[in-house]
């Protein structure tokens, strides 16, 4: 059938699972991916625009985040908000409950707060109003998260699509209430007079402190508390959870109340804490962005600080890249962030698997390596080869 | 009532393209949450193709067949390219499907806006899109029959044709059998020599391309241009994914599901609603209905726990042959 | 001379990460012979076969077919060289029919009539029974295996590889399969059969190749060897094959189950009118083919599954309807090792420490968990059971199968239970680890614990258990003394051909010295039936 004089054809490469990977290698893979993705973004931007180059791209990124005191405060504020939303999602993702409804829960929290201001503003004392707002936003966010949780617990309803739909319903409800409140159909709600949250020092600090507080609480909650332990068991093996007598339904519902409540509070901060108004775009897709940061952080609160930091860095930085590169609209930001996501997602592959080349290719690669090793032959080039051969 | 049905059918291709595309993808065992983004990208691709064609014509009258062909093919190609990113990450690099899909949606909507704002000329699109609405001239003379079945643009019929062909291929052919085997049990398919990765790539690229036609339809046929339609397309794109569950992974059922969802979508803007109320608030409330109905469908399926309503067994799980 | 060799492997090496699954393995398969590959779990038998069938790709080494070197980089290549593998975990699409599965992937027109007649032709040639139109999910295990075998024969395979084909079969079904294999040999096919059961090796094969820890040991003629020699080659050192049966004085019945009816997830009856009891200091074995209700029985005892009717009493107190937590507190421990080993009782991504506190995390006061004590317990367990692990903080998913099971069984015993329900505790373990688990169970038995042992290997059960209950389609076929029965009798009971409970009387499986009187039992039954009516969760 086959010609037996031919040399044997082997596949060029094949993939094998890694047993374990050192932390150093892991970090190196991520670092390479992040730099490579930004470089790709830089190249695209430089090609599209005549006014910038790769170096300017990176300097603009830093300028956008740390260029002025105000920009730096804004960076921190955005960082804190995203971190808080990520914490809300971490508790639910850790339980393998795919809460994709952060946007909706934020909007409902905000809507509840603004509704309190609208209907009660001027009728009750402003301090009391704020207290009511806080409770209302927590309640609204929690309800928006607990509805799919109850359905999941009782009937195993697909929660990812459920929560996604609730996002659009929440946005629709915001539009609906604005239509009721604003006569004339402009669809824009002017800032309300009452019920605005007080400022701490400056207008950013309250949100930043909130982000730090939530991150601390959730980190401790997950790592040391019994509740955190229970939800981790549910996430890791539901059979085991049932077997040791954990009430899985209760844990799902309890955890999603927590998740929704945090999102609700974020909604409060984004409305009453800033402009004291609301629109369907108030969440600015943070619920969605947090899905990415949470997943990329592998549901670890401390890693989430890194992923949120990176995403906010790119987002805020891109806001400076645009004017510097003479681009009018913000569309390029999503493009670059999308590229960054893809690269970090792809890291999972290189951490879990490794590529093994066939002997011929390996021999060639080793030759190349040896060649470079000779050039830099100060420190034990042989060791290098051994490591790779392992 | 007739008017509602006709308008529903007029909008149906959006859901049907998206739903059929996602069904093909899911049959290979891949849940592509990037479909809303891919739909947008398809819209941008179609618009780009049409803009280039119209520019090349330089004012001359466009050829109907050529115009449609260019729009459909360019939408299909751009959407398939988006699908290729997803396929590379999930099939070759075995990355998490959900998260890759969501990232793709972010990327694609960015790309869509970028293309629409920088390379597409809305004026040209509007001129061209009158051709998309072109329907048989004698349709209106045939009463209700003509209105329901014959009065639509070409994409309505293309969507139905694709859905029916897909249904037949999945059910009755060797290729369909193999694709279903890949989605149900890739290890079994692999063990009998089916090239699993090749089938997955093909299904994802084909499915994405078909879904991209939804965007092409939306921009070129339905709203006839418009920069900021990506938000609407994205939100409706999720409904297409929900529709897959609703129609039990059957493209032929998806035709009727799409008409139903089309009716729900156009309801706020129909005469029926206008006759009852002129208040924007109530219109806004009616706009929520498709999403609420989707949730009710999800609930219904989960509560009855129907055995028939089961997704392909390996949906969402990537395949690695040397898994131990 | 090469004409008589069908397949030859030279210096095959395959590694998974740091684990060397096969190291320099050589193997020859002659035409028209049955070759057994013998080795313990983890000795690399399946990995080696997967390389012949194109699932894995070897790191080093050569494969020769009919004397020519070949590259098999995909299952397609394997088919090209007429190699067919019947995997241990069947590679069948559940929602397809037998015929659809058989023709899947073949380049010919899908013509059901033609397929059916060819399938029948193959079946009658070798003596199979098959219904080509039946869906896989409606099939019993042995039927699925038949489909798998016909699938490779349909493709014209000349070399057949069977991976542990008898693991899921009853002794009678095994005999049938062996008859088929012999017919194939007469037909000129070369067959490799992977197994770790010595008696089967002696019965079916012409030659035996032995692997140990990934290394090739030797190939011997079956007629020139014996079980003892094979064991030594397989395990490497002389070991005593006898499982000890600790003799104890039996106490009063600890756990009594009467007229139990349990439904499965799909609503079908999984346990039907089963009664039995376990005394302290007794090991009661449960034998039966896969899916005969073992899992549902375990779950019902542990409080994870509702019973339809009947009664379960622990030391004379009903435990029906109690939450799982309270049943654990009463000292009833249940450990179920599913096929993936990690499904129930352990959280795979948790560290050993975190797994140690699964059942006790709620015992201390306050809102925080006490990880310190758990870590201390983990350290002690690692020392006591010689668990091989880098640290107490290693996720159990990373441990080898034997060590995972030691963690699970060890933790269960740590809570000093008085009843242990354990299903497949030695699943997938090598001989030494298995003996470690048997010893743990025997120690517990000596302490007066009642043990329900659900097993797969009848030889082990005959040696370890005091009594054996046989289930068939959820019915109790009889409870026999391990010393007074044999494999053939158990096999007949497993398939339902022999029903001892019918021969005896109505009170079968009910203790004469029960903790409850007949009247009290009646009340329990009544109570549980009422409960079933009211509560429909």
Topology:
The complex is a heterotrimer of chains A (390), B (324) and C (537).
Chain A: E1 13-17, H1 23-48, H2 54-66, H3 69-94, H4 102-120, H5 126-155, H6 159-181, H7 205-224, H8 226-236, H9 238-243, H10 248-275, H11 286-296, H12 301-325, H13 331-352, E2 353-357, H14 359-375, H15 381-389
Antiparallel strand pairs in A: 1-2
Helix pairs in contact in A: 1-2, 1-13, 2-3, 2-12, 3-7, 3-8, 3-10, 3-11, 3-12, 4-5, 4-6, 4-10, 4-11, 5-6, 5-10, 7-8, 8-10, 11-12, 12-13, 14-15
Chain B: H1 2-27, H2 35-57, H3 64-92, H4 97-118, H5 122-132, H6 143-150, H7 154-172, H8 174-184, H9 186-191, H10 196-222, H11 230-246, H12 251-266, H13 271-276, H14 280-287, H15 289-304
Chain C: E1 5-16, E2 19-30, E3 34-38, H1 45-52, E4 60-65, E5 68-70, H2 75-80, E6 83-86, H3 98-103, H4 112-126, H5 141-154, E7 159-163, H6 171-186, E8 190-195, H7 198-204, E9 207-212, E10 215-221, H8 227-235, E11 253-263, E12 269-279, E13 283-287, H9 294-301, E14 307-314, E15 317-318, H10 324-329, E16 332-336, H11 352-356, H12 371-385, H13 401-414, E17 419-423, H14 431-446, E18 450-454, H15 458-464, E19 467-472, E20 475-481, H16 487-494, H17 500-503, H18 518-534
Parallel strand pairs in C: 3-8, 3-9, 6-7, 7-8, 13-18, 13-19, 16-17, 17-18
Antiparallel strand pairs in C: 1-2, 1-4, 4-5, 9-10, 11-12, 11-14, 14-15, 19-20
In short:
The complex is a heterotrimer of chains A (390), B (324) and C (537). By secondary structure, chain B is mostly helical. In chain B, α2 crosses α5 and α2 packs across α11.
Which fold name corresponds to the CATH topology of chain B? ABC transporter involved in vitamin B12 uptake, BtuC
Q: What is the first-to-last residue Cα distance of chain A?
A: 37 Å
Largest sheet of chain A: 2 strands, antiparallel
Helix content of chain B: over 70%
How much of the sequence of chain B is in beta strands? under 5%
Query: Taking Cα atoms only, what radius of gyration of chain B do you get, to the nearest Å?
Result: 20 Å
Listing every helix as H and every strand as E from the N terminus to the C terminus, the arrangement of chain A reads EHHHHHHHHHHHHHEHH
Q: Estimate the helix proportion of chain A, in percent.
A: over 70%
Instruction: Output the strand order for the largest sheet of chain A.
Output: 1-2
Strand tally of chain A is 2
State the distance separating the first and last CA atoms of chain B.
59 Å
Q: Tell me the name of the CATH class of chain B.
A: Mainly Alpha
The residue ranges of chain B in which pLDDT falls below 50 over 5 or more consecutive positions are: none
Count of alpha/pi helices of chain A: 15
Name the average pLDDT of chain B: 87
Radius of gyration of chain A: 25 Å
Shape of chain A: globular
Biggest sheet of chain B: strands, sense, closure? Answer: none
User: What's the overall geometry of chain B?
Assistant: globular
Assembly form of the protein: heterotrimer
SSE order of chain B: HHHHHHHHHHHHHHH
